[in-house]
Amino acid sequence: MKKKNSAINNLLKVMAKLRSPAGCPWDREQNHMTLRYHAVEEVYELMDAIEAGDDHEMQEELGDLLLQVVFHCQLARERGAFDFDKVARHITDKLIRRHPHVFGDLKVKDVDQVWANWERIKKAEKHGTRHARPSALDGVPRHLPALLRAEKLAKKARQAGLSIVKKGESGPKKSQIGRALFDAAAYAQARGWSAEELLREATGKIERELRRRELSRGWLRVES
Questions:
Q1: Of 126, 116, 141, nearest to 203 (Cα)?
Q2: pTM for the model
């Protein structure tokens, strides 16, 4: 009977061959840094396929994204750091550990409680390590697009009671917000500015202020 993981095993073998002395010159020249933006590009192409509802393209783009995972795992294996099996085992263990309401006896009443448990477990996992996140604002990737990063930071601030905007608070309508965002980008472009960079700079200033407020309230726990 054909093994269920034979397709993955074949892909791993092909990647190893491409990286071998008898492999492809381009693949042999790559490293984690040269590949880092390829993964981002593949994610955006996958998003296009999903929004188009195109299963054929979605299948192809998922394969391209999987290739990025396999490529980085091969590079790491060559360095003696980790391999694909370790990555797969790690995410499997994490999913089980962070879903005690599915794989354990914990009871939850709604999605908000699921997320609260997830964050609590994640914080406990990282406690005492160099990856610890003592601030409620930690964990927002620096390289996210500026608007997405602003959204995530605003969400974390609101959940921590640091934001002046409360969930459900009345304000501009959805269409008005969308138009305001476009107008801001258009005005910036007309003046030769980058709306992306302006928002990134503003978000950085707001984040620093929020962190000062968090620290002044004594909410920030400094890890020993």
A1: 141
A2: 0.73
Question: CB atoms < 10 A from the CB of 109, how many?
Answer: 8
The predicted-structure confidence for 110-120, as pLDDT tens digits, reads as follows 998 898 888 88
CA atoms within 13 A on the CB side of 218: 0
Task: Give yes or no for a contact between 130 and 184, defined as CB atoms under 8 angstroms apart.
Answer: no
* DSSP at 166: P
Alpha-carbon gap, residue 13 to 70, rounded angstroms: 10
How many Å apart are CA 10 and CA 7, to the nearest integer? Answer: 5
For 16-34, give one letter per residue: b (16+ CB within 10 A) or e: eebbeeeeeeeeeebeeee
pLDDT digits (tens, 9 = 90+) for 82-106: 999 999 999 999 999 999 999 999 9
